[in-house]
Amino acid sequence: MSEKTLILDKQDIDRTLNRIAHEIWERNRGAEDFVIIGIRRHGVTIAQRLSQKLQEFAGVTIPVGALDINLYRDDLSEIASQPILKKTEIPFSVQDTHIILCDDVLYTGRTVRAALDSLIDMGRPRAIRLAVLLDRGNRELPIQPNYVGKNVNVARDELIEVLLAEDDGIDQVVITKGARNGNAR
Amino acid sequence: MALLIRNGRVIDPASSTDEVLDLLVDDGTIREIGKDIVAGEGAVADEIDASGLVVAPGLIDIHTHLREPGEEYKETIQTGSLAAAAGGFTSIACMANTKPVNDNAAVTKFIVETAAREACVNVLPVAAITKGLKGEHLAEIGELKETGAVALSDDGKTIASAQVMRLGLEYAKTFSMPVMCHCQDEELSAGGVMNEGIPSTYLGMRGIPPLSEEIIVARDIAISEWVGHPVHIAHVSTAGSVRILREAKARGVRVTAETAPHYFTLTDEAVAGFSTSTKMYPPLRSREDVEAIKEGLRDGTLDVIASDHAPHSTLEKEVEFDKAAFGIIGLETSLALSLELVRDSVLTLSQLLGKMTIQPARVLGLDKGSLRAGADADITIIDPEFEYTVEAHSLQSKSKNTPFLGRQLKGRAVYTIVGGKAAFSLNP
Amino acid sequence: MVMLGKDLLGIHDLTPDQISLVLDTALSMKEVSAREIKKVPTLRGKTVINLFYEPSTRTRTSFELAGKRLSADVINISAGSSSVVKGETLEDTGRNLQAMNPDLIVLRHASAGAPQLLAKMLPSSIINAGDGAHEHPTQALLDAFTIRERKQTLQGLTVVIAGDITHSRVARSNIDLLLKMGATVRVCGPRTMVPLYIEKMGVTFVPRLEEAIEGADVIMMLRIQMERQRGSLFPSIREYSRFFGLNREKLKHARDDVLIMHPGPVNRGVEISPELLDSPYTIILDQVTNGVAIRMALMYLLIGK
Fold it and tell me: pTM for this structure?
């Protein structure tokens, strides 16, 4: 049996994203061409929520894009099953934009590396900053987030399971000991 | 020295014999057939206990391709005869499409002499009707007969001109030479590589319509009737051909016909995997054709089962399907595949053996194919229950181009005796 | 989990789920092709050999572009420039190529079943880029993608395939795919160019074009090979185009939102009249664009891992 620990519930997630949205606004207020791009699939949901919050409290409309990084992965030959490709949908030019790149969990940094390569292939953004809901450490590449929801200390054999209402019907983050399946990373 | 075959189920279709008997062979001839034969003291050198086995006249294959002269890398007279003996055949008629073509006495003489020296079964040359199988000028049929040819055929080719066919039959009649017809309208089948049917529709491969066979079967029967000399239709593969033959026979036309085991065993669906060992001429046909062939065998429309043994090496076969040579080997699988007809109640064992012994002998006008005192001691002893798997390495033929590799077969010759001597025995 | 096997030899071997997987994956690839930098690093270090025994510019180019957009190294070998013409067998050519350790061989060959022969022999993945009159699976997939793009689904559509069905690998692969995905297929053409047993494939044969396109959602016109005239499959180009070519008058029988497709290259004015070729009904250039996306998707699915 795997052992599960709840680390964020619905309210926690909402409060965390709210804080990140405010931080983003503080540091980017007045910046032109400011966009949010989420890494499929939870990163996109997070990007949409951040954009919505910015709309609500700052009255600005920040465009949101969706990025599929599978074509840029460096571990295609190592993972068990080939990822199903989803379309990258960035309905605006990234040239000269300030990009807030979003993902749910930051771990080794390899996904972010792939996302950076992918974004740079699409044009030359002025800056890319990274926002994540959770940072679980254990980086394998020199990548650091600019906005972090929560730092968690998780052992390598533990998995973080992020569930978001839009995708999974419920908002919660759970740590699972010893499990090696599902939606976890 | 004499050979005594004891307690076998002796089946001789020619005399409608089917009972457990002994059979005494001496000096290349059958001396006596009867119950509890007592041979003189010390006269019998060898004895075979044939209890539980079938003792039949030596099988005769009316349609074999040996590749000597010319393509000895595919088969020689010697290896072909070994394959024949292993398959239970004591006599094989070999077709004329060698290189050079057997259209002159020199080639016939070469085959006869090589066979006398190297073959372990009787090899009966079939000579060409026309020079070079070109369908234009008649071969020297009189001299061919004198040298040892037993029949005439341009097998592999159809004589396209009805006039040449008529003249060939008339000239053959002069010398009482049996004529075997390869029936294929070469324009209707041009470019075709498999049966024109449902599988060819899916595979997008050029079809050979049943029509291309039937139109020539009908033509050759008509010419035969006109000339008054019988024809033997080779490798019948379609329901339409069976129907045309049945009608002709009902009318009293002296026509005979053969089919081959693959035409009642496989359908054109076997081609779907693109295996070139499913490519032969005529092609494997539809399920309906297979059923019609069986019915033709059952009601006697089809007189003979022949192997159409056609060896090809990997050079001709391990290529793209449409570039592969037509033909499969058959001497070593014919008997077992044909025995399926007995198990399926299409034929009795005696009827089946008739189509592989006395019937082909009659077509060729041979004094063979029957077990009676005084006849040549060509005898095949069959274990109808013997089960084995067809494997390339255990085939005697030089070529391994058969769609039956890996197939589980039941029934095989355990002794093949030619002129009183064992040409093959399963457990020597 | 839906996956493809080692090779793509024909639509015959694919399930509807596998077909959907290829079409869905191609959506991402189309997006890549629309970018300014039309290249992703996915197949870096992989080798693709285009082995073409029949002349083909567009299919070969499409595969080449697909490989290059995924960063694979693509090598072209065509019949005219290799030992293919010097009498080397397909088997020997295959073994020689294998010694160079390619990840994927794209084969176009005049013999039905040639890709099967190569696939059995070699550990590399094989994509059939057309074998004789047998299959042209990538064409059928790109056609399906193009239809789906316009009509959202293939289910329930009526598709007419018109022309020389007998000699068309495009027709065979399309019939198989469309039926698997729930479309209704009618074939049309002179009897001399339609196999006798075509209806056993599950299609309806309607010899006259006006009747065949009645209420059709999609019309696929096949290319007529001019040299077939010599074999008397049709009497003249003039007669063919009059009775079996598509023009505005005949198109009145089809639905208003009908799509006209053609695997190319078009004989302008023979299969399709010039005014229709340049009309919005005709989506031949979409087919070409989508061809690259479909081939990228297949490369990713076959050798991306």
Answer: 0.92
